[in-house]
Amino acid sequence: MTEPTRGVDNDRVTRGRTAVATLAELGLRAQPCYTVGQVWELLACDLDGTLLSDHGEVSALTAATLDAVLSNGIAIVPATARRPATTLGLVPWCEYAVCCNGSLVIDRHRNVLDEHVVSSAVVKQIISWVRSVNESIGFAVSARDALAGDRHFEQTRPHALGTWITIDENDLDSFAVNNLSLRSAELGADELAELIAAEFGANTVAVQASSPTTVDVTPTGCSKATGLALICEELGVDPGKVVAFGDSANDADMLGGAGLGLAVNEGHPSAQHEADQLVDRSPVDGIATHIQAVLLDLSNERFH
Fold it and tell me: Minimal CB count within 10 Å: which of 35, 91, 235, 253?
């Protein structure tokens, strides 16, 4: 077994094991895997469309896989557009998490390591402008653990995203916005992202598609890659010893900066372009078997 990465809580490993079935209980046997001669120290993973099932859940196989990864001294860092509450609830194995597309970096106790916000004035300006382009566009804002938005967005949001507060633009002054999400029933995310980026420019906000239907707007200079870099520095992990998985445009920089970047086959072209390898994804187990292939040496006929 490799020595635990600095900053990984060994008590956390024990707590994780008691909460889920182990790989052995699922008929699998795992040891540390030295992929292409490399000893990996950190797993960074997008959640929706990558690690989670199609229903936004962590399967039994995925939970056991993450537990085995952590038990072998490899740190786990979720990197997501989600808020802290739903992130930590899904991935309790992590010591740190990149939330709100990198504008909020926290530890497992929800202490804030780094935070950036988009001013309410800019948020309202963007919403007003996009509605002049297409009035059907809905919005949602993440402000730490608050998730709020209008009825257009509410009608299409996944229930897995947690408690929802219905607001309109006049309520936005009450929120310190980490991430603004926009969704249109008529415009694709790439088209909408290009329009916003062209109008407001990179010096104002960062704009990326986080799914085929959703555009995320964050403070300039914030991304999953910047959040992950901060955590690597905190843990003393060389970025070259990071394995990263993702599927969307907001994962591209993270995949490109990792020692090994793996993109989902059906993912966004920009993520695939930055990745070293492409992987299939299961609608139930996400990319669990690929985590096993890279980070765990499994010898069992069930694994393929």
Answer: 35
